[in-house]
């Protein structure tokens, strides 16, 4: 999530876990997966890392605290790495952060209102429905775009006229700002709107980058890798605020955070290097796969929330099945995403090795002929 | 030029090694003193965020820089010929 942080009203009793070698190894693995996704997409670690830590027996609020504290340092190093590659537009990041902060505030107020009126089950249902609608729409839109690009339909359609996203992008409402690194000139109001939408989603469902990155790509016309880098730059601010708030309330277990770092700082470098050797459409494909699976994970839980609210009668066995399915989709999305990234990187590595071997062979034959 | 690149790589690797040793030392200090540190973190005073954020910044900088240097001169260098910038 690239938004500002609001602490939950009701906090559970603090219980620091016993750190066994098995738990430490699991935290390393969780960090590696989260870090790789963040480095590659600019987003996508938190939604898997927090539930994964909870499944290890870490209390929810401490899992969130460890995650956000770890995100602070991870975002600094990730943004530094992306910055080396020229992937971070700081001007864009700072403009978006102002609007993003406002978006989070509005979303948190709305979430609180829903919680007060409809209770915990109603709030869960509201958040899940928002997840399903927004993420499904983004996934379908991005998937269609990738398919169109692959089939070469884009050039034909460009002759027919601009799409809705292009029409929005071409709105020249002053003041216009030139974002040098991204190489685009966009309306300040449009950048603020994207920031606000990102913040609103971050405050509502906790993963703002899922809309922030696609919005930067399609509405502002930013290259995919710059969107990923800029999103990480934004995450520094929200990570800092969250790390401070959770620490002053006594929820941070530094041992968990440090063990997450062991994996995530390797992952974030691998992910950032990955953005250099794959196409923008491949980065978007990973994002679509993850977004669609996370939406499915939330959709699987709808019968449970309806049952909790008394709107539907669902057998206990069925509830177990839907919870299990939800976990399969959630953790599966991370596994699919990271597998695709590593597979493409391995392909690039093999190609590089072949080229090197061919180059060595060629120079060897030149030497022997002379 | 080749020699200079070799030197750069060697010095980067030495720095990365020192960084990893520093990281190991930091982790050793934190984990052997974890009861005291966790008490500070539970104190709900300004000392708690100062401690946690200080450790986080130190760990992420030392370890992150070391890992970054290691990967830059190994995997990243190896994949240099495969770089794409099609957008």
Name its key features:
heterodimer, A: 370 residues, mainly alpha, 12 helices, B: mainly alpha
How would you characterize this protein structure?
The complex is a heterodimer of chains A (370) and B (87). In chain A, a hairpin with a 4-residue loop joins strand 1 and strand 2. Chain A has one domain. With 370 residues, chain A is mainly α. Chain A has a two-stranded antiparallel ribbon. Helix content of chain A is 79%, strand content 2%. The model of chain A has no long low-confidence stretch (mean pLDDT 81). Chain B is mainly α and 87 residues long. Chain B has one domain (2-76). The radius of gyration of chain B is 18 Å and the shape is elongated. The model of chain B has no long low-confidence stretch (mean pLDDT 86).
Question: Gist?
Answer:
The complex is a heterodimer of chains A (370) and B (87). Chain A is an all-alpha fold.
Separate helix tally of chain A: 12
Distance between the termini of chain A: 61 Å
Radius of gyration of chain B: 18 Å
**Main sheet specs of chain B:** none
* Helix-strand category of chain B: mainly alpha
Poorly predicted runs of chain A: none
Multimerization state:
heterodimer
Helix content of chain B: over 70%
Sheet-strand content of chain B, in percent, reads under 5%
Helix content of chain A: over 70%
- Structural class by SSE content of chain A: mainly alpha
Largest interface: A-B, 49 and 40 residues
Number of domains of chain B: 1
Mean pLDDT across the residues of chain A is: 81
Number of strands of chain B: 0
Q: Could you state the order of secondary-structure elements of chain A as H and E?
A: HHHHHHEEHHHHHH
Shape of chain A: globular
Unreliable spans of chain B are: none
Return the domain count of chain A: 1
**Largest sheet: spatial strand order of chain A:** 1-2
Q: How are the SSEs placed, and which strands pair?
A:
The complex is a heterodimer of chains A (370) and B (87).
Chain A: H1 21-41, H2 46-55, H3 60-84, H4 90-151, H5 153-160, H6 164-169, E1 176-179, E2 184-187, H7 188-205, H8 209-218, H9 224-248, H10 254-277, H11 280-308, H12 316-369
Antiparallel strand pairs in A: 1-2
Helix pairs in contact in A: 1-2, 1-9, 1-10, 1-12, 2-3, 3-9, 3-10, 4-7, 4-9, 4-11, 7-8, 8-9, 11-12
Chain B: H1 2-32, H2 34-41, H3 47-78
């Amino acid at each position: 999530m690239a938004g500002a942080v609001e602490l939950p009203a009701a906090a559970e009793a603090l219980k620091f876990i016993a750190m066994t070698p098995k738990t430490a190894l699991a935290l390393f693995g969780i960090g590696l997966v989260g870090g790789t996704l963040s480095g590659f997409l600019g987003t996508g670690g938190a939604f898997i890392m927090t539930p994964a830590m909870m499944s290890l027996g870490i209390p929810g609020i401490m899992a969130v605290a460890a995650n956000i504290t770890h995100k602070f340092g991870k975002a600094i190093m990730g943004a530094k790495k992306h910055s080396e590659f020229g992937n971070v537009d700081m001007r864009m990041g700072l403009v978006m952060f102002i609007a993003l902060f406002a978006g989070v505030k509005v979303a948190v107020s709305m979430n609180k209102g829903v919680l007060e009126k409809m209770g915990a089950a109603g709030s869960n249902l509201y958040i899940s429905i928002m997840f399903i609608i927004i993420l499904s729409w983004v996934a379908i839109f991005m998937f269609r775009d990738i398919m169109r690009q692959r089939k070469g339909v884009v050039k034909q359609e460009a002759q027919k006229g601009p799409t809705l996203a292009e029409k929005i992008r071409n709105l020249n409402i002053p003041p216009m700002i030139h974002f040098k690194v991204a190489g685009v000139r966009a309306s300040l109001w449009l950048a603020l709107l994207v920031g606000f939408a990102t913040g609103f989603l971050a405050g509502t469902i906790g993963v703002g980058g899922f809309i922030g990155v696609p919005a930067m790509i399609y509405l502002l016309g930013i290259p995919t890798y710059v969107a990923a880098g800029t999103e990480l730059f934004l995450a520094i601010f929200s990570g800092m605020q969250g790390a401070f708030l959770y620490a002053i309330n006594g929820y941070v277990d530094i041992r968990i955070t440090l063990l997450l770092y062991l994996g995530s700082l390797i992952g974030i470098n691998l992910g950032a290097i990955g953005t250099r050797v794959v196409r923008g459409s491949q980065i978007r494909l990973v994002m679509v796969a993850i977004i669609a699976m996370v939406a499915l994970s939330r959709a699987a839980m709808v019968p449970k929330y309806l049952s909790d609210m008394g709107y539907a009668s669902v057998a206990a066995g069925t509830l177990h099945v839907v919870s299990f399915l939800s976990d399969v989709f959630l953790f599966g999305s991370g596994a699919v995403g990271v597998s695709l990234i590593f597979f493409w990187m391995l392909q690039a590595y093999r190609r590089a090795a072949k080229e090197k071997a061919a180059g060595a062979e060629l120079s060897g034959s030149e030497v022997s002929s002379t | 030029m080749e020699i200079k690149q070799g030197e750069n790589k060697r010095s980067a690797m030495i720095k990365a090694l020192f960084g990893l040793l520093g990281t190991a030392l930091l982790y050793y200090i934190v984990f052997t003193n974890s009861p005291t540190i966790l008490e500070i973190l539970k104190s709900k005073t300004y000392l708690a965020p100062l401690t946690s954020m200080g450790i986080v910044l130190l760990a992420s900088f030392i370890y992150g820089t070391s890992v970054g240097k290691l990967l830059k001169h190994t995997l990243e260098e190896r994949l240099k010929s495969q770089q794409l910038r099609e957008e």
